Amino acid sequence: MQITEHANLKQFNSFGMNVTSRYMVEVNSEEDVKELIASDLFKQNDHLILGGGSNVLLTDNFEGVVVRNVIAGREVVEENKDFVKVKFGSGENWHDCVLWTIENDWGGIENLSLIPGTIGAAPMQNIGAYGVEIKDVFEELSAIHLETGMTRIFRNNECEFGYRESVFKKELKGKYLITSVTLRLSKKPDINISYGAIAETLNSLNIADPTISDVSRAVIQIRQSKLPDPAEIGNAGSFFKNPTIPSQKFEDLKASYPNIPGYPQPNDQVKVPAGWLIENCGWKGKTIGEIGVHKNQALVLVNYGNGRGKDIENLSKEIRASVREKFGIELTPEVNII
Ligand code: EPU
After folding, report:
1. Which atom of ligand 1 sits closest to the CA of residue 334?
2. By the number of CB atoms within 10 A of the CB, which of 44, 100, 148, 217 ranks highest?
3. pLDDT digit string, tens, across residues 227-261
4. Whose CA is nearest to atom 28 of ligand 1?
5. What CATH code is carried by the domain that includes residue 283?
6. Overall pTM surpassing 0.70 (yes/no)
7. Beta-strand relationship, 336-337 and 56-57
């Protein structure tokens, strides 16, 4: 367990916010986590657990302990002719693991290629893209309770997965540190190209019978064309969730805005792309000093270099206010604002 004082966090958050933490501790194993939480340092200070730092907006210096989870590991724990269960250390980089599963010809997470962040952060917000969510392949995770030090296994149904939601963002928020995640991957993968853009991209590459590797390549191409690379422009992916509204409200909006896109949901609801709402309030590509709204995807707020977290937060409030005023829809941030 390594402790650094007055650590600069710029390289540890994908927004690239130039802030510090009073202490930073790297944990490499379950034993490290247990040692840390038993320490006075941990008990006497606030704490913030960072995986890849790709879903947080740091608005100020952090006066407590930042815990950097770098727990490694990739282990096949069960296998038969149809599937394989792989247990990943929670500090592993998500995309590296996706590429590794594809090399092994195990299907299930190829649509989730190039999502920034770590394995441990993935179930917290049930990451999803191009028709797949982690909950579709999730078997179980292991986590340590931060007050008692007890290890608990959470099975799929115990995680209460929803759209960008899990129990770890709700009643168990801040209570556990996830140490490993086990996924059930298929040796006879069902290719999922239901999302229009994937089929179009495969078509343009002249691929009629795609493998999981082809699907991954198509997803990477789409993401690179729309989403800024955090290594070049600071960002945390989608800043807001796509809102769900009653069908009747959607029909009313359609009367005024015939082009408004909507995806029917259960219980007479319609999901509306927040990117469309934000773009139609005139925000797409807007730059305000060092920050702005990305030019290819209005759902992504960006830091061009020396932006401050508070400025991004204020911009997000202005965006919410204009979407509320124009469409009567409330946007909810997907990113954790600290
Ligand atoms: N749109 C616009 N203008 C924009 C952006 C989007 O009009 O600037 C409209 C278009 O109609 C487009 C539709 O929104 O067809 C959907 O856009 P896109 O396919 O880019 O997806 P999204 O709904 O904006 C969601 C996820 C992404 C994920 C993609 C693909 C959320 C909050 N975001 O974005 O996830 O990659 O679908 O599945 O659900 C993330 O969570 O960080 C993330 C990038």
Report:
1. 32
2. 217
3. 999 999 999 999 999 999 999 999 999 999 999 99
4. 129
5. 3.90.78.10
6. yes
7. parallel
